[in-house]
Amino acid sequence: MNILSYNEKERQAGAGLEIMYTFYDYYGNRVRLSFTDHPFSVHPGHVWIICRYHGQWLLTDHPRRGLEFPGGKVESGETPEQAAIREVKEETGGLIRSLTYIGQYKVEPDMVKNIYFAEIAAMVKQSSYLETNGPVLLPALPENIRTDERFSFMMKDEVLPRALEEIKRRSLSCHERL
């Protein structure tokens, strides 16, 4: 992926200013990503939750897109945190122990999504996982995830590796390879 503002990002980081990553997603849409407090909207329309359960990555198997971390729309009257808890439960059966806001990204022109990191306390077997085929546990994410056809397009741009770097920087996950 091409990171458009790399030099500007480095200059700003040295000056102690907010770091903003800008790149194009899998479909060529311009994306801006930040790990600051809600830089694009305090009312995002979507959530994406990077999940860990017993030292493994918890993903869901979307029938059309493939393997991805759970996520979805924030429904009317719902906070983004409530949406994150609901989406993880609906798509994986996971019950969240802790939920941490990581950052936010905007897919232009106007789709804003909060990124969370969740530690899962328990998994509940469900008769339905709504629009997904249910949970998938992986001990590690593949290094070649961008070319691995099993994975959704949402796992193939700069959001995932940057978010994993931020999770590691904040010491939110175990020390295995992220």
Automatic annotation (TrEMBL):
Q: Does the keyword Hydrolase apply?
A: yes
Instruction: Give any GO molecular function from the UniProt entry.
Output: 8-oxo-7,8-dihydrodeoxyguanosine triphosphate pyrophosphatase activity
Q: Which Gene3D superfamilies is this protein grouped with? A: Nucleoside Triphosphate Pyrophosphohydrolase (3.90.79.10)
Superkingdom assignment: Bacteria
Q: What is its EC number?
A: 3.6.1.55
- UniProt keyword Nucleus, yes or no: no
Q: Which InterPro entries match?
A: Nudix_hydrolase, NUDIX_hydrolase-like_dom_sf, NUDIX_hydrolase_CS, NUDIX_hydrolase_dom, Nudix_YtkD
Q: Where is the Nudix hydrolase domain?
A: 30-176
Q: Which UniProt keywords apply?
A: Hydrolase
Which Pfam family, any one, appears in the UniProt record? NUDIX
For this chain, the family text in UniProt reads: Belongs to the Nudix hydrolase family.
Question: What's the protein called, per UniProt?
Answer: 8-oxo-dGTP diphosphatase
Q: Look up and give the organism this protein is from.
A: Saccharococcus thermophilus
Please name the taxonomic classification of the source. Bacteria, Bacillati, Bacillota, Bacilli, Bacillales
